[in-house]
Design goal:
14 strands, 7-stranded antiparallel sheet, alpha+beta, 37% strand
Amino acid sequence: MISIFEQLNIELGGVVADVQKSVVHVLNDRGGAGAGTIWHADGLIVTNAHVIRGGTPRVRLPNGDIVEAQVIARDDMHDLAALAVEANGLPIIQPGSARNLQPGAWVFAIGHPWGVANAVTGGIIVGANKPLPELPQSGREWVLVDLKLRPGNSGGPLVDTLGRMIGVNTIMTGLASGAAVSVDAAKDFLRRTLGSNVTSTVLKDEAPEYV
């Protein structure tokens, strides 16, 4: 008989495996690398602006193909960027919301820390939609987490236990703590930079599960 803990592990493993399908590897000319998430099946990818510094970025897709990416929008203040690649039928992330997150809720960060592809680390929410005291000028809405983020996690998704993206992993704030740009800030960024015609099919704000 499967225990409740074994069942929980199976279910969470399935959630993480589904999310991993929409996570890409973003490479830059300086040899640096980060992560990104696919928001549209035809090649719209969201990552951190700092991940793509240094020339034309390339993206390793979930199937292993490496393709050049075009930077179609960038916001350095909020550390967000949108990329476009020539592809179709890509698996997409499910955007959620950080507005109603509760401290103590379980979350997972997915990325490529130290080059380990699609690595996963888990932890809990410390606070949501909070400023960082050491960055008072940034104006960003942060999701603060008690989990380990490492180089290579930047730009990857922070997701809840249902696999919904609630943030873009961005910064280490301690040995076992970090912060992600709120997914709601990412949605606003896409609306501002790409316009309603594009984002209406990407954000799906009318869907109850995304509220």
